[in-house]
Amino acid sequence: MENDTFWEEGSFIQTIGPDDKGKMRTFGMKHDEEMTFNCSKCKTKISAHNKDWHAGLCDRCFDASMTQ
């Protein structure tokens, strides 16, 4: 099937509900915008996008959590 890349290894999909409207504000943000939060694992600075969409983890910790 041509569209198998949707489920390719490393893909991440997250559902949202009607109460997550505020979270949608950060959906299109880059990983270096609003760097006012800290990674919940290693405490490095993270963006608002990572806080909302990557479980509060920096890119390195998030990627590591996806391979475990």
Distance between the termini: 27 Å
Order of helices and strands: EEHH
Biggest sheet strand order reads 1-2
Secondary structure category: mainly alpha
Describe what this molecule looks like in 3D:
With 68 residues, the protein is mainly α. Helix content is 21%, strand content 6%. The protein has helices spanning 48-53, 59-66; strands spanning 37-38, 45-46. Strands 1-2 form a two-stranded antiparallel sheet. The longest helix has 8 residues, at 59-66. The protein is globular.
Short description:
This protein has helices at 48-53, 59-66; strands at 37-38, 45-46. With 68 residues, the chain is mainly α.
Q: What is the fold's blueprint, element by element?
A:
Elements: E1 37-38, E2 45-46, H1 48-53, H2 59-66
Antiparallel strand pairs: 1-2
Features:
mainly alpha; globular; two-stranded antiparallel sheet; 68 residues; 2 strands; 21% helix
